[in-house]
Design a protein that fits this description.
The protein is an alpha/beta fold. The chain folds into two domains: 2-169, no CATH class; 176-310 and 353-443, Rossmann fold (3-Layer(aba) Sandwich), CATH 3.40.50.1110. It has helices at residues 2-27, 32-57, 59-84, 102-123, 130-138, 149-169, 237-240, 251-262, 279-293, 313-317, 324-333, 335-347, 355-375, 427-443; strands at 86-87, 90-94, 176-177, 183-184, 190-193, 207-210, 229-235, 267-273, 297-301, 379-384, 400-403, 418-419, 424-425.
């Protein structure tokens, strides 16, 4: 039983390690009540693990009541971890791309811990015989005098190592970090996604997502611009292409096509889109990729308040634990993704995020991005107008605004241009936006700095 407790302790520790760094960051941006609602689960998980260890140590003296309480608390702990790992649409669904129930994940963790512990116990420095090992593993409570400290240490070590290895070397779950430290999908892989059974999706067709070496849904960027003007397009799922069946109909791909038709051989387009990113992530992508890829212009697909999230995908990944064991568990369990979904659900309500503070942070990120572009004499275009509501963000000095026509803004329901349930563009809207962008970029008009001289 000490193995079960050790595994649960590691799960709690991984959840805590994955949440505290960015919950502390978000504390300044959320109302106390909203922050408490989001922070409750990791706090409860730690308290519950402590209670389990306390009860386990007193089972011999506690009789039937203590044993029953222990089993009840253990069951609650399994349900809690199940909820911690769950998707925000269904607490019994893992937030893994492969999906599935969280119980198999827990059973796999316990089985891996058990196997490593048994191997060490039978062949390690504190070896015992098979009969003694069986009694040790089947015993609910500790033996008379308590579990020896070396056995407790061995159990904790086995559980941590087995769980970390299971998550680190098991099926790839992501998200990943590319060579520039940017959040991405599995570099160089092709993933087929069928969201037809997803109740929150609005008739998405099956999609084939082909990722380049940077982990973005795009062509492989060439090492040099080869005398072409390189344009970097950053954004969230609008740029990545949620609901778009193939790479060729994403916004960056269509922009590449339109620019080639307007000015053959003059432009190259590189995409850097990742779902749930915001202005923090956009600025990180531009400042990392523009110098490396020698981009002469950057397009920010700006969606308004949705991009003001102080805990966007990149911010979450930037707050990963540095310890390799904890990092593999936090990444494999997708702890931060779950808490991000919970934060958006709780803090996205009125009275959640401090609107003034988050707007100020978003404005600072936008201004810093514009200053970086100005220093490089790089053109910066904000493509906006997808949603009509004003967000209060001021266009940074030196940047250009390109507004979609009002007739293309989200109408509040499905249309030929929009998926209605979750407000994402259809290929037809990407086509229209790409035409507008190509017309602006090909002519070089706008209020921002001109292309730098060759």
């Amino acid at each position: 039983m000490v193995l079960v407790l050790s595994t649960l302790a590691w799960l709690s520790l991984a959840f805590l390690a994955g949440t505290v760094p960015f919950l502390g960051h978000g504390l300044h941006d959320a109302s106390p009540a909203a922050f408490a609602a989001v922070a409750a689960i990791p706090a409860i998980s730690v308290l519950e693990s402590a209670a389990l260890f306390w009860l386990h140590a007193r089972l011999k003296a506690g009789g039937l009541f203590a044993r029953s309480s222990f089993l009840l608390l253990l069951g609650l702990s399994v349900l809690l971890v199940n909820a911690m790992l769950g998707d925000h649409h269904d607490p019994l669904q893992l937030a893994f791309p492969e999906s599935g129930d969280a119980v198999p994940m827990l059973l796999s963790a316990f089985a891996a811990s058990l196997g490593l512990y048994a191997a060490l116990r039978l062949a390690g420095p504190w070896r015992i015989g098979p009969r003694e090992l069986a009694g040790e593993l089947l015993r609910l409570g500790p033996p008379e005098g308590g579990t020896p400290p070396r056995v407790q240490a061995l159990a904790l070590l086995s559980a941590g190592a087995a769980l970390s290895a299971l998550l680190a070397f098991g099926p790839e779950r992501g998200p990943f970090l590319n060579s520039y430290g940017l959040v991405c999908f599995p570099p160089g892989k092709t993933v087929v996604d069928d969201s037809s059974a997803n109740a929150s999706a609005d008739g998405y067709p099956p999609a084939v997502n082909r990722y380049n070496s940077l982990g973005y849904r795009d062509l492989e960027p060439s090492g040099t611009r080869q005398a072409k003007r390189r344009i970097l397009v950053v954004g969230d799922s609008f740029v990545w292409g949620l609901g778009i069946p193939d790479n060729e109909r994403t916004l960056p791909a269509l922009l590449r096509e339109k620019l080639e038709a307007a000015a053959p051989g003059r432009f190259d387009v590189v995409a850097a889109g990742f779902p749930a990113n915001g202005l923090y992530g956009y600025a990180r992508a531009v400042t990392a990729l523009a110098p490396a890829l020698d981009a002469e212009a950057a397009v920010v697909v700006y969606l308004g308040g949705n991009d003001h999230d102080p805990l966007d995908s990149q911010a979450i990944m930037d707050r990963s634990p540095r310890n390799p064991l904890l990092r593999s568990m936090v990444n494999g369990l997708r702890v931060r993704q779950f808490v991000h979904a919970a934060a958006r659900r709780v803090l996205g309500r009125p009275g959640g995020w401090d609107a003034e503070r988050t707007l100020a942070q978003a404005q600072r990120a936008a201004d810093e991005l514009a200053a970086f572009a100005g220093a490089r004499k790089m053109r910066l275009v904000f493509l906006q107008g997808y949603f009509e509501a004003s967000t209060g963000l001021r266009l940074p000095e030196g940047a250009e605004a390109l507004d979609l026509p009002r007739g293309l803004a989200f109408p509040g329901q499905g249309s030929p241009y929009w998926y209605g349930k979750d407000a994402h563009p259809k290929p037809l809207l990407n086509e229209a936006a790409a035409e507008l962008l190509a017309a602006r970029l090909a002519t070089g008009s706008g209020s921002g700095p001109s292309y730098r001289a060759r």
